[in-house]
TrEMBL record, chains A, B:
Domain Extradiol ring-cleavage dioxygenase class III enzyme subunit B: 6-270
UniProt keyword annotation of Zinc present: no
InterPro entries listed in its UniProt record: Xdiol_dOase_suB (IPR004183)
Full protein name: Class III extradiol dioxygenase family protein
Alphabetized UniProt keyword annotations: Dioxygenase, Oxidoreductase
Region forming the signal peptide: none
Molecular function GO terms recorded: dioxygenase activity
From TrEMBL, chains C, D:
Domain Extradiol ring-cleavage dioxygenase LigAB LigA subunit intervals: 28-113
Enzyme class, spelled out: oxidoreductase
Organism expressing this protein natively: Novosphingobium humi
Entry protein name: Protocatechuate 4,5-dioxygenase subunit alpha
Pfam families: LigA (PF07746)
Top-level taxon of origin: Bacteria
Amino acid sequence: MAEIVGAYFTSHVPAIGGAIHKGLQQEPYWKPFFDGFHKVHEWLAQVKPDVAIVFNNDHGLNFFLDKMPTFAVGAAAEYHNADEGWGLPIYKPFAGHTELSWHIINSLVEDEFDITTCQKMLVDHALSIPFELAWPDVEAWPVKIVPFAINTVQHPLPSAKRCLALGQAVNRALQSWTGDERIVIIGTGGLSHQLDGERAGFINRDYDTFCMDNLSVDPAALTKDSIHEMVRKAGTQGVEVLNWIAARGALGEAPVQEIHRNYHIPISNTAAATMLMEPA
Amino acid sequence: MAEIVGAYFTSHVPAIGGAIHKGLQQEPYWKPFFDGFHKVHEWLAQVKPDVAIVFNNDHGLNFFLDKMPTFAVGAAAEYHNADEGWGLPIYKPFAGHTELSWHIINSLVEDEFDITTCQKMLVDHALSIPFELAWPDVEAWPVKIVPFAINTVQHPLPSAKRCLALGQAVNRALQSWTGDERIVIIGTGGLSHQLDGERAGFINRDYDTFCMDNLSVDPAALTKDSIHEMVRKAGTQGVEVLNWIAARGALGEAPVQEIHRNYHIPISNTAAATMLMEPA
Amino acid sequence: MSGPQNAMPPIPGTHLFDGDAAAKGFELNAMCYSFNDAANRQAFLDDEEAYCAKFHLTPQQREAVAQRSVLGMIAAGGNIYYLAKLAGIFGLNVQDVGSMQTGASVDDFKAMLFAQGAGQSYEEAHGAMIQKEKVHG
Amino acid sequence: MSGPQNAMPPIPGTHLFDGDAAAKGFELNAMCYSFNDAANRQAFLDDEEAYCAKFHLTPQQREAVAQRSVLGMIAAGGNIYYLAKLAGIFGLNVQDVGSMQTGASVDDFKAMLFAQGAGQSYEEAHGAMIQKEKVHG
Ligand SMILES: [Fe+3]
Ligand SMILES: [Fe+3]
């Protein structure tokens, strides 16, 4: 039976990609953030996943306001990055695990999640940067992926409770999968930040700490706030923590332990965080 | 407060559009079907709706397999028809009720329906033909619309139970709407038919009768079958009855009475049916 | 694919357009979806080979399209809603397509539908149609 | 719009991209979405007026774009994820955009972020930034 080896969470700020591209990892600005990844590399080398279920959000590359899904699930054989408008280098493509995608899709619809199924899906920095951070300098990614895109762009957004439930439903799907893959769960984005409005530059260490302290041991604690309250506490883009919550759900309801945490303010306009969790 | 005046259900076979275009309503082949609409015209003239909530399905005009939503909701100011590939005349456009769309969308996401929100949406014969049948010879449609597209194309399809629940959630949204519109609910498609495979031409009068007998008084009876069983009983395209079930849900859980029914085999490859229901 | 429906007894003569089919048929359905545009329909008519190549049809798909085999296209992952747009290029309607798939003449296929209208079950009407094809075919 | 969030107390300096905004901003966001394509970015640079006309920007949107006013674009329904692609055309990053919206210099905006890193609350760091702008601005 497939094994869920654990979960990896990280911020995905576009500027990180620039820093990697320019080799700035040891610069004083970047070092406190990149230093948080030694442990991630070590852990991944040890748990050796071959599939990643990734919860992230599109930033206007694949989805537009003509058709904006609440939850989109990839079912493609390949996923490509593309120009996001800044003319930056294009990230490496990803291999999909289509059979597992369809297994999860069938299970989710049976479980009354009204997903949008994507046989084509461009992936943006929210997926690529966490991979560049986790597996630097590889020729090709060592894992196949099943990507989820959660709407964090256009309100109404799904509630944190619904996102946790989505993740838990994905966990049930993984439990009924008969393959023998080693599966890592990935949640990307956040933590607190706000790019738009007069409150641009807003960061909230207390709320981020609350989220990180509870995510492993009591994820339901993160689902008590409405989206509106989450925006107030985390910032307009800080709601990307929904991806983390869904990813935590996909770890399942058995006990989970935090094995690593790094938190640094600021990376670009963002409180940047990295975490690892394992089944307890 | 807005009032739900009732619901109108009809098949939407493309050939009906051809018959209207050619003025064949009194031909022996078509008369038994079109005669079922005198009562519809009379009823609509009497209840005078100004908004229609329409549950239908796309047939490969607006959605493709790159992004296939389970439930899509329109939030456009205008909806256009377009060439569906047969080079037929293009149907008239529809005015949207964007405020009501967004009210429903907000309410549905709050109610944990993971809809895809469409600020642009082409509508095909599944929406246009029921309107051509209901309001023949009008210059412009007398109602604004909020369209729902339910995935009946790519399995997994949402269960009948989930579609009924969607409709019921739409009803709750309408109950909390503070406008004073007169709202008609429309469900289109079906009844039993199968276009593809060696079983093409399959029709099932018994199952259709079961559906029509129960839809008003006990819609939950239609939700006991799995999608697979519904395909067996209704045919691969007969699952369009999901649109009828969702529409029935949108009438709410208070008693409803059937006030009109017409059923005729065949129109094209289909068992064609028309119904009207009102709050009891 | 391990969807729940795979545990279900199959439905004779019926091919669910599920994940397996959707994955297999993507290119064919993409080509057919393009036929919503009249210019694309004309391009197909002008140079079928080139148009199919542009959409990277699989050999199985290309063969089924070349043979105008609806069942072949379905076996290659085609979905009837998209395939209907290809059929439309040749002026074929859903009864023509029904005839092609059942092996009956269009008239006999229509008679089978009328028979169901007159009260026969599908099994009776279909049985009679098949019998007739055997005699006349 | 009567969404549940309208009952909520507003969040200062914060504009939720809700249905009202999405409806209002559709054309502006559509234009910005087109900037994923380098050729479209160049077309905008070559003839901004014509490019904006092509997307049927509202007068309010056109004005905000002409003035490079990020807050104006947001008031006109712009969403920051799409607007960032317009900003990218001018080589502006999210800190430049933050500076434009807060009225602080880019350096002071960055200092405000560092202050939060050093343990100040947003309110403290933001207050100090605004004070500084008053003195130097
Ligand atoms: Fe992000
Ligand atoms: Fe249909």
